[in-house]
Amino acid sequence: HATPNSSGSVEFPPGFLWGTATAAYQVEGAGHEDGRQDSVWDVFCRIPGAVHHGDDGMVACDHYHRYREDVALMKSLNLDTYRFSTSWARVVPDGRTVNRKGLDFYSRLVDELLTADIMPWLTLYHWDLPQALEDLGGWPARDTASRFADYAAVMADALGDRVPVWTTLNEPWCSAFLGYTSGSHAPGKKSPELGLAAAHHLMLGHGLAVEALRDRVPQASLGITLNFTVSDPVDPTNPADVDAARRDDGMFNRIFLDPILRGAYPQDLLVDVAHLGLAELIRPGDLEIISTPIDVLGVNYYNGGAVAATPEPRGDAPLATAGPDGARDQDAGSPLWVTRSPNPVPEGIHPHARGLPTTDMGWEVQPEGLTRLLLRLQEDYTGPRGSAMFVTENGAAYPDVVEQDGTVDDQDRLEFLDAHLRALKDAIDAGADVRGYFAWSLMDNFEWALGYSKRFGLTRVDYETQERTVKSSGRWYADVARDNVVPARG
Ligand code: PNW
């Protein structure tokens, strides 16, 4: 792509969808209302020291009660679509019995969205596994995949006539490896074997759910959202660094991409993890189920990273300092995984900071990584399989500076979004089939192990009053969504 979209105005293709995303546990609150029972996150939040400040999602943004106001907020931002997740623990609280009142909430939300002419984009699983199913073994147990397909069928029967796009899982990498290997997310287990077993059964659950949805809502678009990194070797002329980047890419990206979009685990990855029991879990037929054709691939991109085979800082690339998540991973207790900012990485892979600016998460800001990622996905995965891509999450945490009149002039977040939308348009111009973009997030919310300390919202939430205030980035994004154009800079 010869002309990078550097500062002029940038127009997106006609019909491009503009949205924002949230997740049930991060915004809803109403923790034990209308029959909802504990998810793994409710239980994890009660472990002393597990979550910053002892925060939890019992109230969060009180979206369960304020959804009408929040849909009006979306309307004021000119959004075409809203990506939300449904809480398994609300709909099937004990893991087997359907809770009609829980379903009714999502029915009201979907109706409110449709009335506002905002397309509902539903994610079935954004990490809130019913604790009752964790007690039976959680994702490392094969049966959880079947329970997930049952839950998918319940949702399809209730909302299939009104929801045009369904994604099964959000970021199974986080569910598997933060939940069961580094222990920094619920349920806080620390075992490489459990993480891999969880990954396989999450994908099996995805495939079974796609089959269940396809039967019930044949007219809908179906897919999954994965989170990606872009791994660069610190020294591209050093074969050991190149190999570290290969393994990092394998355990982060290809471990999900290849089974889902090509029907096979990467051969090099199976060799790398041969001692961890993954191959023994795979039953005949699993990969056919996992690779059931999908229509959309959701792409979550926050940052890439440079990795090396040795920990020593080299040149101007100091060893990355642990981010907020990484700080916890340091004492993860698993010798096979080491700290990275912010993610745990397999043994023998060492992240190096590149001197790029970072967000309040400690994550490097690297917009051109998004261009490379989307082109690679197009060429190696979605193109051959005919599925379209959507950026289902992208955004940044920065501390809010609240002015005397209550406004928040978050130029840092605005510039982050501007740069990533230009990088996205570069990818589209070079041939990537990307049809929409969801900013993370509609509003500040419960940032998992970091509690309410990190703010990703286009809208500020005052957690004392639950007042919502659109930030400068939100007003800017509303114009982008209205005009289908990123305006010229400066
Ligand atoms: C994603 N990591 O989470 C999630 O989908 C959102 O729920 C979350 O709020 C958002 O990104 C911002 O963090 C991630 O440690 C959490 O690599 C942690 C990691 C990646 C993604």
Uncertain runs are: 321-342
Q: Please list the strands of the largest sheet in the order they lie side by side.
A: 2-3-4-5-6-8-13-14
Q: Which ions, cofactors or small ligands are bound in this entry?
A: 4-nitrophenyl beta-D-glucopyranoside
Ends distance: 23 Å
The helix count comes to 17
Give helix % range.
Answer: 25-40%
Structural class: alpha/beta
Enzyme class: hydrolase
Protein name: beta-glucosidase
Active site: 393
EC number: 3.2.1.21
Which secondary structure elements does this structure contain, and how are they paired or packed?
Elements: E1 10-11, E2 17-21, H1 24-27, H2 40-45, H3 63-76, E3 81-85, H4 88-91, H5 100-115, E4 119-125, H6 131-134, H7 143-159, E5 165-170, H8 172-180, H9 192-216, E6 221-228, E7 231-233, H10 239-262, H11 267-272, H12 278-281, H13 286-290, E8 296-301, E9 305-308, H14 324-329, E10 337-338, E11 345-346, E12 350-352, H15 367-385, E13 388-393, H16 411-429, E14 434-440, E15 459-462, E16 467-470, H17 472-483, E17 485-486
Parallel strand pairs: 2-3, 2-14, 3-4, 4-5, 5-6, 6-8, 7-9, 8-13, 13-14
Antiparallel strand pairs: 1-17, 9-12, 10-11, 15-16
Helix pairs in contact: 3-5, 7-9, 8-9, 15-16, 16-17
The site of 4-nitrophenyl beta-D-glucopyranoside has 15 residues, from loops.
Active site: 393 (nucleophile)
Region (Disordered): 310-359
Keywords: Glycosidase, Hydrolase
